[in-house]
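User: Could you go from structure to sequence for me? I need the amino acid at each position, not a summary. Structure tokens:
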């Protein structure tokens, strides 16, 4: 194996918290600690766009199912939809519930206390892109994504005894399996029928 090319943002590289390819691997979106989103053309290795997206770190980023937008979630507890065609154009922004982005705190007997900063996948889209799953204090919060990009709380998947720090949906079309993983090491797989 050999390295074919290396992508870089500038001489002073910020730490990257998350990266995600689009459906054909020609675009890469990165989420950085400086609050900026960077969009790379993987064929040339060039950063083709960069914009300030959140106040504070961006923890996760993902392309929409139709590949025309991307979603981000940051330390400011906002879930934001961005245009890929008009980069930097914010299409929607929603403040999420408490516990969606951390810091995640787990307490136990005898004064035990553990604090975890976000490291995992903090949100996931179901295969049709109509529902969003996010972390929550003792479960996973599901939202319906409206046509205008706004979110409507729809279902809470509880059952955890500690904060949920990562979530995901099965990538299989028409499959309604989703998972939530918590600080105490438990993973719950739920079969849901979104409302």
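Assistant: Here is the amino acid at each position, in order:
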């Amino acid at each position: 194996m050999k390295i074919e090319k290396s992508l870089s943002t500038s001489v002073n590289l910020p730490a990257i918290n998350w990266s995600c390819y689009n459906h054909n691997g020609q675009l890469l979106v990165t989420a950085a600690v400086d609050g900026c989103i960077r969009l790379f053309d993987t064929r040339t290795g060039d950063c083709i766009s960069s914009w300030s997206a959140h106040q504070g770190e961006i923890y996760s980023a993902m392309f929409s199912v139709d590949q025309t937008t991307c979603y981000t979630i940051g330390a400011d507890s906002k879930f934001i939809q961005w245009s890929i065609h008009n980069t930097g154009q914010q299409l929607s922004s929603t403040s999420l519930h408490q516990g969606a982005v951390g810091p995640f705190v787990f307490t136990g007997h005898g004064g035990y206390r553990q604090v975890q900063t976000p490291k995992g996948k903090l949100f996931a889209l179901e295969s049709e892109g109509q529902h969003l799953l996010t972390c929550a204090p003792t479960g996973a919060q599901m939202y319906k994504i409206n046509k205008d990009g706004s979110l409507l709380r729809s279902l809470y998947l509880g059952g955890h005894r500690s904060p949920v720090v990562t979530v995901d949906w099965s990538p299989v079309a028409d499959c309604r399996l989703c998972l939530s993983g918590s600080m105490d090491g438990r993973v719950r797989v739920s079969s849901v029928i979104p409302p």
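One structural detail worth keeping in mind: The longest strand covers residues 46-52.
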